[in-house]
Amino acid sequence: MNVADSRRLASSLEKMGFEPSAKPDDADVIVLNTCVVRQSAEDKAIGRLSSLRPLKDKNPDLVINLMGCLIGVRGNDKIQKKFPWVDVVSPLRPRTAAPTALRRLGKSTAVAQTDKQNALLDGDLILPHHEQGKLVSAYIPIVYGCSHACAYCIIPSKRGREHSRPYPEIIEEAHSLVRQGVKEITLLGQIVDRYGLDLPEKPTLAMLLQDLNDIDGLKRVRFLTSHPNWMTDDLLDAVAELPKVCPHIEVPIQAGDDDILKAMRRGYTNQAYRELVGRIRDRIPGVSIATDIIVGFPGETEEQFQETYKVLDDLRMDVAHLARYSPREGTTSARNMEDNVTAEEKMRRFRLLEDLQEEIPPKSTPVTWVRPSLVLFEEKSRGRWRGRTTTNKLVFVESDQDLLGEEPLVRITWTGPWSMIGELAD
Ligand code: SAM
Q1: Using omega within 30 degrees of 0 as the cis cutoff, is the peptide bond preceding 34 cis?
Q2: Rounded distance, CA 89 to CA 91, Å?
Q3: Among the listed residues 304, 307, 299, 303, the one whose alpha carbon sits nearest the alpha carbon of residue 341
Q4: What is the CB-side half-sphere exposure of residue 267 using CA atoms within 13 A?
Q5: Ligand 1: distance of its center to the CA of 237 in Å?
Q6: Cα of 292 from ligand 1 centre, angstroms
Q7: Ligand 1 pocket: which residues have CB below 6 Å?
Q8: What are 53-64's pLDDT values in tens digits?
Q9: Residues 410, 397: contact at Cβ < 8 Å?
Q10: Which tens digits make up the pLDDT trace of 172-187?
Q11: What are the residues whose beta carbons fall under 8 Å from the beta carbon of 333, sequence distance 6 or more?
Q12: Which ligand 1 atom sits nearest the alpha carbon of residue 328?
């Protein structure tokens, strides 16, 4: 979501005549986009913010603009007082961040024009110049905010209530991205399958997938993140039947124990999640499924953690994004529950799951088991092309051909826990 916001911001800055600078030292405006989902992300944002101070001391005309979840939708006075070298804070509306920063520079004529241009940008996102014709895979946010209020999660208070973008605007943006060379689109939302429930016409994510599938020149469509309670049969049918929609689902379980799930306010049980995974695998053969897990939620006992271990061991998910619980200001769990699993114990549980996950096929699949796969190549770095299979597995290939945006068949010659190496099939 932040990558999508940053790209939109970069394009509005360019529309105002700004150009990217190679180093922060050369910049007139620095916009720092921040994430605070866990304490570690917030610490990183604060660290980066602190590192900008010497630049400001050296060049008092430099405009430092802070945006993203550190500011949230409501603003954050405390931050501005604590970091006086920040010139502008922008609540989470990326298109207004740049104009605000520029007003500080006194470029108000440019800003007045750009405000108007930005209003048009909603449906017609222009990629930043250096990405036009080169960006293979792009994000389109379709649901902003979140109203689910999981006990541990700061996102609803930072990103505001859930609201879906109008259907025609999304379709228009997809066409615009494809015209600029994009081959793969990933639709984004905190609970992406709830798309349209707040709109009068009640469009669905399945309908969007169908319409995106019909766009000439677009090769792949993905979406994330799903919530177990909102994955309808229509959605699974769309993934199973539409050729451009990738067989890859991101659906977090977060914990395996029913009492912990209840305390997290997730709204499903271990059994319901297992049934969902069965339903997804039955309906979409060859699907890859990724999950998220939090270890060390307040009060999580060893037995309760073992439920998480067992469910991961049984279901053998393709990817598990693991996190150690981190209390976030203002959330239900931070206000009402003691963070009583020690840091060492959280780390032990985290490592146990990490080790378990490393053993799970297909990561450790013998090469001979892996069929040749279609790989969409996104960039060449250090002499190797980097791409992904439809199931979102990373593949590296050495080739002198220009493979950017191409989707050839690749024979896999090596598999590792996080990536594969292959060669172009004849
Ligand atoms: N909307 C998705 C969902 O259904 O949960 C993903 C939201 S969040 C950006 C990504 C992940 O961060 C979550 O799935 C969760 O595992 C993790 N996370 C969120 N809050 C956390 C917290 N307080 N401590 C540790 N991990 C957290």
Answers
A1: no
A2: 7
A3: 299
A4: 9
A5: 27
A6: 7
A7: 37-38, 152-153, 190-191, 225, 227, 252, 254, 292, 294, 323, 325-326, 328
A8: 999 999 988 888
A9: yes
A10: 999 999 999 999 999 9
A11: 151, 152, 263, 264, 297, 298, 325, 327
A12: 23
